[in-house]
Amino acid sequence: MSFEIQELPDVIKVVTLLSLVKRAKIQKGQLRKRINRICAQKICIEMADLEEALNEMISEGLITYAGDAVQLTPQGQRLAKEWENLLLKKDPIIEVVAGLVDGSITGLVVVLSALIAGLAFKAAAFAALLTLTAVAITNFSSFFLGGVTEDLADMQTLQTLMGFSLSDIPDKDRREKSLKLLMSLFAILHKEASLANLYAAIICSITTFLAGSMPILAYLFLPEPINVIIALGIVGTIVGVFLVRYRSKKARVNWKIILLETLVIFAIATIASLILGGIA
Predict the structure, then answer these.
(1) Domain boundary among 65, 86, 107
(2) Could you say which of 19, 96, 215, 237 has the lowest number of CB atoms within 10 Å?
(3) How far is Cα 125 from Cα 114, in angstroms, rounded to an integer?
(4) What does pTM read for this prediction?
């Protein structure tokens, strides 16, 4: 299946992949009803159109077709997941990375600040809770509002590009069906984008709070000087194991390069925060 959407069967393929991404199989009649329901009955996808798309997907190794049941192959499952991630960004990569980075830096800065300033328990606890909560809430609002805006803009661009390709279909009836199906599909995706971004924002804020709270709690409740050692060890574990490993896996880049980048960013952010805090 080519990435470029050029014909009516291509649009039907995308709808089929998205329909099967979370279910084992679907009946052909149910799939046709689902497609027509997406279009809000503005158009009617004929069984011949569906058969054409399904036959192409079989030849491309994306589905198996036994009787009336349509089921994704392993290759089809991978492609369906990629389409879902492209259109809805269901894989919260940036949210997890941002949460781990912001939380770890916040925790490290709070611990070092409390240590340098010699804050008492109550003052350190209040400052830690206030700072960490503010960062987590800021991340939630930023990722939710910014994510929705960005995703809708990206969807509009993608819809425009796909629509431009479909507008070259010579047959008027198939062209109108394709464009209306595409428009209806993206109308539904726009609604789901808000839910996806809410989910992503929650993940980011929770990750931020957890990554920052663990070293802070260790510093506040463990006896000196073991509290500082454990707190710094927790930050090092979060950064060295979880963050670097996660980024390396998702970016498919050697972990040594990721580790170097991460350490440089952490050093700059921490030093800058301490300097600005000292000036203030």
Answers:
(1) 86
(2) 237
(3) 9
(4) 0.67
